[in-house]
Amino acid sequence: MHLAELTSPQLAALPRETPIVFPIAALEQHGGHLPVVTDTRLVGEVARRAEAALAREAVFAPVLWLGNSDHHLDFPGTLSAPPRPYLDVLVGLAENVLRHGFKRVVFLNGHGGNDVPGRQAVFELRQRHRDADGLLLLFATYWSLGGRPFERPVAGGWVQRDMGHACEWETSMMLRLDPARVGPHADLAPVDATPPFHPAHRGWVTRERTTTGHIGHPSAASAEKGEALFDVFSADVIALLERVRRWDGVSWREG
After folding, report:
1. Directed axis angle between helix 168-177 and helix 223-246, to 10°?
2. Helix, strand, coil percentages for the chain (3-state, nearest 5)
């Protein structure tokens, strides 16, 4: 179900255990070959496929295009909410639906920069509502739910095993979704996607890691790979939301 297409009485009539899903993304530079709306388009497609499969089992809000993209601000076209205000926006969105009695909130993330504030948002929400029983607050990045798209057989094979930025994976998904929006990428040199100082976490800005704006191997992209990625990622999201729907309201591990 699409939240924006329901009436207020229709929403009021839903069981309060219905998962409310907030797809969140960003509007930021994606190298020289992908549009700044890439993250929003991609998570929107994952959410669309999941919503179609789940029918009336979950409610999906419109995609929030504004994300925490401060690390990309050296590149024109990036619009960012700083971490603390962005965290407050996510908390506020959840509070809206909690106020009306819904108990299961899922932030479906499509941008890596949202990860830290998003996790902090659900942590703070749970502390604020620490005495509420049957409350489930989740933050999930769609490419980090356990799927292994690189095991799918595709022409030319896979180069990457993880998400980069404007990379093999994102470029492939855009080639599948909207190829007219994808610029020349076949001759783009790869940019190492290894996290700096891994496993320690280094504070960084994007221009320190890439001068072109992409991280990974966009030259290896194909529409065939894009469909495989969408198929795996949407299946992961569907499985997660089915677990949310089945949750008994008490247990910690099993959904």
Report:
1. 90
2. 45, 15, 40
pLDDT tens for each residue of the chain, 255 residues long: 999 999 999 999 999 999 999 999 999 999 999 999 999 999 999 999 999 999 899 999 999 999 999 999 999 999 999 999 999 999 999 999 999 999 999 999 999 999 999 999 999 999 999 999 999 999 999 999 999 999 999 999 999 999 999 999 999 999 999 999 999 999 999 999 887 788 898 899 999 999 999 999 999 999 999 999 999 999 999 999 999 999 999 998 765
Structure tokens at 20: 């409310």
CA pair distance 77, 39, nearest whole angstrom: 13
Cα-based distances in Å from 234 to 87, 200, 239: 25, 30, 9
Cβ atoms of 101 and 135 closer than 8 Å: no
Rg of the chain, C-alpha, whole Å: 18
**143-147: which pairs have CB atoms within 8 A and are 24 or more residues apart?**
143/169, 143/233, 145/233, 145/236, 145/237, 145/239, 145/240, 146/236, 147/232, 147/233, 147/235, 147/236
Task: Please tell me the distance from the alpha carbon of residue 83 to that of residue 120, in angstroms, as a whole number.
Answer: 10
Write down the residue that tokens 């962005």 correspond to. Answer: 86
Q: Write down the pTM of the prediction.
A: 0.97
Burial of residue 87 (CB within 10 Å: 0-12, 13-18, 19+) is buried
Domains of the chain: 3-246 (3.40.50.10310)
Rounded Cα–Cα distance for residues 234 and 137 (Å): 20
